[in-house]
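Technical note accompanying the year-one report. For the benefit of new consortium partners, we illustrate the data format agreed upon in the data management plan: each record pairs a sequence with a structure-token string. No post-processing was applied to the example shown here.
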Amino acid sequence: MAENTGMRPIAKDTVHKLCSGQVIVDLATSAKELLENSLDAGATSIDIKMRDSGVTSITVTDNGHGIPPENYPTLCRKHWTSKITSFEDLDGVTTFGFRGEALSSLCAVASVTIVTATRESAPMGMSLEYDHNGELVGSTAVARERGTTVVVSGLFARWPVRLADLKKNARREYTRLVSLVEQYSIISDVRLCLSNQTRGQPVVAVRTPPQSDRLTRLLSVFGAHVRPHLVRFEYQAEDFSLEGHVSRPEGGRGGSDKQYFFVNGRPCDLPRPKKLVNEVFRGYCPNRYPVFAIAIVVKGSVDVNLTPDKREILIRCEELVLRGLKEALVSVLEPDESAFSVAGVSAGSVNGSAGVKRQSSLMCEELVPPPPATMKPRLSEPAREAVPPPQVSSTKKRPSETASKPPTTASKPPTTVSKPPAATSAPKKMGTVVIGSCRNRVQNDTHDWKSVADRLRIKQARMKAKLEDSQLRDLDPMPAMTEGGLSVTDPEEASSALSRLIHKTDFQRMRVLGQFNHGFIIALLDCDLYIIDQHASDEKYNFEQLQQRAQISSQPLIHPAVLELGVVDEAVAIECRDKLEKNGFFVDVDEDAVPGQRLRLKSQPVIDKTVFDQKDLMELVAQLCVDPVGVPRCERARRVFASRACRKSTMIGDPLSKTRMRDIVGHLGDLDHPWNCPHGRPTLRHLHRLEKVDL
């Protein structure tokens, strides 16, 4: 670097290359800018053709308005645009592009040729060639119907590092491009086709019919197997509206790669709404991720000029959007209302409630007092005259269900079951109230509903008092903190207490003091005393060893099964066939089949008597889409490995030598996740901080 002799302006061509490198960063952004230009031109048919996954060339052809001759010289110049004239125009911009950077940046990183024709000039068009500075260097008359064709060749030829990365990861980059094009195929109603030619005939990756409905385009992206699990929702507010599809809990996915947001018709990344959707979904299905495509229409107050790729969007009313999104999701994911009785019910009415799903929040609207004591029937007594039982039910229903479904109590009349009188000394039997799939045992005694109401009021008063106390503590500028049984009020001590975190390397430094109750290991780290669960720790070590090293046996199928996957999922499965084979799934690739149906399942895994199926394969593929590094395991395999690890591990009650205890503690430092056993039990807990260590 030359000696600094003062500030000077950067050369114009250097500025052009620096800025262009921020706009065009990979294959996906290159094709994205051309696709958005075609959509802005009013095209109803767009073809994107790749040669060698985009390494050789990218060709985008549309039937849009074409480019007028007066714009030929300035078409690829930096910041020349027809979309806006001043900064204030950003508030009303409705096009994808508006900065005039796309074509100029493409000229800087590749060779660009444009063939275009307007309605007035067709069937004659012009072929235009531009240099790396975006200046027109040649034009030739050619035959062309109305529309525009942009050919980008030699992408990153002048950028050696990016070119080497593109060639090395061409398939991965193309897969990312397919995922991006899928998002535009969902939100737009044009005929969109993406194909790639490496050898032989081009292979179509994305194809959507024109003027198709949103659900049809979604299924072409998500796969037909998602259709039974998708549910549509809407939400209307004064400043915004929501409309989209989300999968039900039973249709969850092993990865979070099929989650799309659109703001005013623009695909974008919204971290907070995405986190909200996943958190709401985990309330119903903790181990899987939802599949969704949600369109948000905001009336003004949107800033899309945050990043060069315009993927990040700032919404002024984001808090209102989050609130409305949560309400809309709960309305479609929440099961039907609950209606159950625990007193004065016959066996038939108890069983009749088995089909009624629960609702997460039940509101006790009114507690009906029980009938007089002389009229109280018991489940253990012969059935008498039926008395309507008190019910606890939620008051919130979906309008569609209110109009279409009859009341639960009327849909199945209660059945009277007679039993012989039980002997006085016979113990009381237990009745079962079934709510969804949960069975709760209740005694046959009728409840004193007045006392229940009193207890509820007392509990409510206690909760209110606790809430007030917590609010008062929040106002305390320096609340006392307790960590590991140590009360901390001094700021320096608080910092020290909060910094006492266990890292995996600390397990090698722990001193094993002994065994407690033949089930726990007592260890010392500096001045902190820890208790370690010997079974949970050894179980987690054996579990991760099985996860990493187990080779699952496979069972051949009599007839290979055709796998119907999304194009991106299929490409990932083909690229990671070795990881699927380690899980016992062997597939063949039919290069002549249509995209999405090129894989044939030859054999599937089996462990002991557990046979895996295509759902497990879909789960593995979803995990590989998110993280292609390492060998994933499906949930069913993890349960089998957890069971095996449990049986072969050190048990509670086994006396251990000090050498064996050191091995168990030391193994924790070699694990990926040493903090819990496969079943969720913690492996260690902090006992106490010793003031003085003399051992």
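Partners are asked to follow this layout when depositing records. Residues 354 and 434 are 5 Å apart (CA to CA).
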